[in-house]
Design a protein that fits this description.
The complex is a heterodimer of chains A (971) and B (206). Chain A is an alpha+beta fold and 971 residues long. In chain A, 55% of the residues lie in helices and 16% in strands. Classes of the chains: A alpha+beta (971), B alpha+beta (206).
Chain lengths: 971, 206
Amino acid sequence: MMRLFAFLWLIFVIASCGYLILRVHKGLHFQTDLMALLPREDQNPELQHANDTATSALSHRIVILVGHQDKAAAYSAAQALSDQLTASGLLDLNTSHLDKDKLRQIGAFYYPYRFGLLSDEDRNSLKAGHGQEIADRALSQVYGLVGFANEPLLHSDPFLLMPSFLTSLPLPMSRLSLDNGILTLQDNGKTWALIAGQLKGEPFALDLQKKFTDTYDNAVASQNAIYPDLQVLHLGAVFFAKAGAQTAINETSLIGAASMIGTILLIILSFRAIRPLVMSLLVIAVGILTALAISLIIFGELHVGALLFGISLIGVCVDYSLQYCSEIFAHPRVTPPKRLKRVFMGITIGTVTTVIGYSSLYLAPFPGLHQIALFSAIGLIASWITVVLWLPLIDHKATPSQKQPMTGATKAFLFFWEAKKYTHWRKGLFVLFIILGIFGFTRFHTDDDVRHMQSLSSSLVTEQEKIQKLIGVSASNKFFLVQAADDETALQSEEKLTEKLRPLIAAGDLSGFQSPSQYTPSVARQKENRQLQRDALYTPLLSLHTTKLNLKTPPALPDDNTHFLIPSNTDKNMHFLASLFLDRRSNEVTHMIALDGVTNSNAIAAAAKGLSGVRLVDPAGDFSALLGKYRSRAIALLALSAALMLPILIWRYGLGKGLWVMVPPLIAVIMTPALRSLGGSSFTFFDAMGLVLVLSIGVDYAVFCAETSDDRKSVTVLAVTMAATTALLSFGLLALSRVSAVQHFGATMTLGILLSYLLAPMARWNRKKISLPLLSTTALALIISLCGCTTAPADEDLNPTKPGTVRISPHVALIMPSPADLGRSVEATQLVTVRYGNQDFAFEAHIHATPENFLLVGFDLMGRKIMTINWAKESTSFETAPWVPKQLRAENILADIVLLYWPDNIVRKSLDKTVKLNSTAHVRTIILDHKIIWQADYQLKSKHDLWSGKLHYHNLAWDYEFNIESAETGR
Amino acid sequence: MKINIALVFLILITPVAASADDTRQGQILLHTGNILHGQFVEEKQVQGFNSPLISKGNFTVAPDHGVIWNTEKPFVTTTVITPAGLAQNAGGKIIMNLKAQKIPFMSHLYDMLGGVLAGNWQALETDFIVSKSRKNQGWQVTMTPIRTDNPAMPFSSITAQGHHFVENVVLLKSDGDTDTLTFTHQALSSKQLSAAENSAFNSVNP
């Protein structure tokens, strides 16, 4: 019967091989786009699409700077480099068509629409009624020292608004100038020429990376041969991706080879025979081949990352062959089928639990993990079948070639776990575990920042910084996405947004932006501009202006034509705009507003508030948030796979003992992050994934130990030792990886497997009744502490302030009570002096408070109204004059007033529970973590009236101070 | 404490303006070397407040030095404006000291003022329509901005009345608020500045 199954299995394996050969013959292609391995945000496909388009546009961008002391050399090398890259068909150059003609073409393109186009400055001037200034400017340009206007131009554009519009178009690279069609800049005696373009192909596809970087390297090398002093700097996602992929592939092959050699050596040394090695390799080979064949049938195509990772997981299946092979040491002269029978239960339960563990990877949202999960599960099952059906048949050896190796060590190891005399030591060990565990978890912290997970090549980062410094842009991967039903709506939203962004540039929150609406104003804006030109310029000023210009024929008034500039003809004529006009579909368009030098994301995000379809995108931030979400999910996965394994263990060992088998792997799973935290490591998604595997492997070891009989236990422990050694070889090496994500995974796996291995003999206690209440409490305490730590990640402090609350320090929010909570009506006038850092400001505040509403109007010392706060129960409005220092935030002034004047029980109720409010007749303090963060001192005329007298308060968290002199005027 | 620069401007120019116009006969002119002392009451009508916001104090105008504006109620504050800039003092502490260049609004004002002092009415009339009339044996001047859409112009009209001196000024703000100033106990002297006045003028950008 067994022979029949073995034969059928052989046919199946041969069929799989045949299929593989067929596929290889047809040209087996592995997916190499590393982006495909990444998780997808599966909530909103529209948003995802827009994000993808924008991210892809950014990631295709290539910038190359060619520098040389000799200008001619730099130009010629740049030209040659551009030619070679274009010839390769891999790069679409943006800079090649930049000549005077191109600029003229852009001018010519805009020309027919000129009456609808105005630079922001001109527009504001006209709106403010300063048309005369524009007319004067035109005159000064005509009569001035460098007058450039000629009669035809003046005739069609007498106020020279077009040149003003064209020069106002945002140039993203501020330090560059155009020379002979080459974008160039001078720096430190060197001339740099810029080559910029879009990669034609996926920057994360391994083959394209190689092709492009090879072409690039060759081109640079050939120019370097001509000009030895030539310096070429490059920037682009493809270079980073190539460096990253190179590291990963080099490491994986090295680690794979090293762990394979280690495993082979271990088996040969342990058995002093070739046969166990052949059998183990056969088991691994069948596992990989069938897994590959079936995965290819199911997925059609496998990702190279999944393949590499899956193979290393199947490496675990060597455990089963080792279990079988080691059995020869236990009872010489026992037939192979009997040996199989003795380990059968162990490896079967081991396989089932491990397959459950690996399959749970399928539930993680990483597409790559789906492939890994299926690939590993199939491989493990195939390996198990091979061990069960084939090994006894091909194994004819009756006696081992040598005596059982490492008997002393395995016996001592077992002895520690089983001898009575070590009871205290064992108890001590667990006490130590509890202490280390508690200490570890107090230092437990999570890290989801994707920028910490990658290991960006440092030389490339330096180069990137140098380029950014040279061309005058600063790194900012953040951008606004504008989605709307049509271009016109999108452009109008952009116009609203850019109006809010402009003051932020002045405030230093960002250094610049490029918005589609700057290149193509909305039709509404164009109509408005036409009206403005007509009303504020042509009608009142044209005749006098014409006389002053001495034009023979008077220029024409803008006629009321119906032709407007629309995006579909802008991007046809200026293809560099493609990166801003991302996508146009029948019912939706997507635009991007590129941001330069963002230093204050919150202020930028706030600018988009209330504009529908506008969203600030921070790809790194979004991805980090996603990793954080998946980290929590991985922990849930861990719990789920433990729960799925339990029924099998309970079925086999009974309730109590079945649970007991789970204890060693669970301790390993809990202690691993605790010990890693002790060492200062953070807990990432990749650690969590590692723990899922630690659980499966740990349960394997525990099951092997639980299954074995007293007379075979040293052989089992030997096999587990060998298994752990091979696993440590493959995963331990990952811990040395330079890729932080891999390093986290490897380190967690190493520690986890080591602990699982060292604790595995505990599982044997389910056979003899060694009852140690201390142990169960240990496990319980550890599990509770784990739960406590994982459910309280430090994600909360990133929460934005909720509506109706005001932050009074970086960590403390005040929920605004209602005006009625003040408990009385007040009419008061106050003289307020404020200190922020070393700046002073003073204003007079008039307050009118009733239970329904609280009104504060502030005047500066010139009598100008600077602030109006109108706070009613349902709505609050704040108005501040534009010249008010931006640190003086009306919201915070109102919050401070509540803290100062509202009854202390109300204030206490409205503050976060993390802080303490102390309130006496003369002092109010708010204390966070034993530190005063806010303090007010009152010098009142009567202690019953807070509104008459002087007071001083200091916000220590944000370091500002207010002195208030208050007088009640209503009484 | 609140001080409208435009107001100071008015106080300074109206006596001078009278010399160019006979509608304000009997008005005392302010000359170099003269010092005008007086008291003021300012009533602000601000939307949302039931009763007007009132402040009281005294002022000094010395054409070759500037203006000292002392508010006594509800808070003691002093504002000094000179051609060099502006200084403010509250509770014995200097809380603001700005050079004129930092307040473009103010330098524009001084430019206009300079023009008017030189008998150039046009400087004022580029921004305002000025209408003058007789009233109760005194005079009244109403100024309305030529452009109503200028955001830098916070007034929709300014009306000043007086006999020998400016006695009453009403400022209508574009946002609907009203500011009424009443000047009393005005007296002209040709004495030297007091030590306190001297030090006040010198406190601007020492």
